[in-house]
Design a protein that fits this description.
binds 2-acetamido-2-deoxy-beta-D-glucopyranose, two-stranded antiparallel ribbon, 302 residues, alpha/beta, Rossmann fold, 17% strand, binds NADP nicotinamide-adenine-dinucleotide phosphate
Length: 302
């Protein structure tokens, strides 16, 4: 069985390489005039997504907490070619905000084609200290607000055969690695991310189950789950500096990969592309993998 697995794994890697050089069915024109609600749009990957959507001529509603920063991102989007653009400041730790934000977007744009869920609450990249209240708060920001935003937006997305795009992380995801027609479930848990990982696992569970239900009910809303490796945003670099020996990939490229995945309605996006192969190896070579992974983290016990 293991030998078969390895052969399949090698095939998977080759397939991955072919996929990498394959011309994908993404057509930028399909985003011209598309109505997008984008969360976490004031910084990092979300900000870069805003610029790409603007270049493609989309109609956009941006949201995050900091109004002054949103204003600046909006102005740059206008110079890049956004057809219409608005912003609404909102703190997703407040349970009443998600519905308000969706109502605002629907009212301004007349409906939605894309709901791109990307924001996260402040993340401590450190050992578990026992702060249960923080975990509860992060669950609200990173998970419950996603559920509430989705619930409020589903009717308009369904009407427009729209797409839900959920940004997740390799440090957290329950992955199904598909090689040919075989699927291997696997996950790569990492240290220093207890609460964050929990929120991302929750997203994966919720949205993977919802995808089945939408298909069973013939409601044509696609769900794209994006599994990212380390990306060079200010917060991520600040969090991981001196703690992890992994190089970060560029945020604008990550942002584009997410947008393409949403536009082509794929179920999963892996960025950088070799993550899928990494997950495959992780599943097929279980011995010592935890030790190998920990060797990328810098921690000396006191
Ligand atoms: N960077 C990475 O290495 C990496 C790796 C894997 C996955 N990801 C995923 O990629 C996504 C974006 O990450 P990023 O690195 O770009 O993050 P980031 O640079 O820290 O940006 C986070 C965004 O969320 C907003 N935000 C923070 N707290 C909020 C709150 N309480 N309510 C509403 N909005 C809030 C921030 O704006 P305000 O401060 O203005 O509210 C900002 O726009 C996340 O889902 C993350 O899990 C990132
Ligand atoms: C769902 O909608 C997309 C986008 O409009 C369309 O390309 C696809 O054919 C639809 N699928 C079904 C099953 O109707
Ligand atoms: C590892 O962490 C210690 C402090 O905890 C720091 O002094 C050292 O420079 C770090 N090493 C690397 C290679 O980043």
């Amino acid at each position: 069985m293991k030998a078969i697995g390895r052969v399949l794994c090698a095939t998977g890697i080759v397939a991955g390489l072919i996929a990498f050089f394959w011309k994908d069915p993404f057509t930028p024109e399909s985003l011209s005039g598309a109505r997008v609600l984008l969360t976490g749009a004031s910084a990092g990957i979300g900000e870069q997504m805003a610029y790409h959507y603007a270049r493609f001529g989309a109609e956009i509603v941006l949201t995050a907490r900091r109004e002054a920063v949103l204003q600046k991102v909006m102005e740059k989007c206008l110079t890049l070619g956004a057809k219409k653009i608005f912003y609404i400041p909102a703190d997703m730790s407040s349970p009443s905000e998600p519905e308000k934000v969706v109502q605002f977007a629907v009212q301004k744009l007349g409906g939605l084609d894309y709901l791109v869920l990307n924001h996260i609450g402040m993340t401590h990249f450190q050992m578990w200290t026992g702060d249960v209240e923080y975990t509860r708060w992060l669950m609200q920001v990173n998970f419950f607000s996603y559920v509430a935003l989705t619930t409020a937006a589903l009717p308009t997305l369904e009407k427009n055969r729209g797409s839900l795009v959920v940004v997740s992380s390799l440090t957290a995801s329950f992955l199904v690695v598909s090689i040919l027609s075989f699927s291997f479930p696997g996950k790569i848990p990492t240290p220093f991310t207890t609460s964050y990982s929990a929120t991302k696992f929750a997203l994966d569970g919720f949205f993977s189950s919802l995808r089945h239900e939408l298909i069973m009910q013939k409601r044509n809303v696609s769900i794209t789950l994006c599994i990212l490796g380390l990306i060079d945003t200010d917060t991520a670099l600040q969090n991981t500096r001196g703690k992890v020996h992994i190089s970060a990939s560029p945020a604008p490229e990550a942002a584009l990969a997410i947008i393409r995945g949403g536009a082509t309605r794929v179920q999963e996006v892996f960025y950088p592309w070799w993550l899928q192969q990494l997950c495959c190896l992780w599943v097929l070579f279980p011995s010592n993998r935890g030790q190998v992974l920990r060797s990328y983290y810098n921690y000396s016990s006191p």
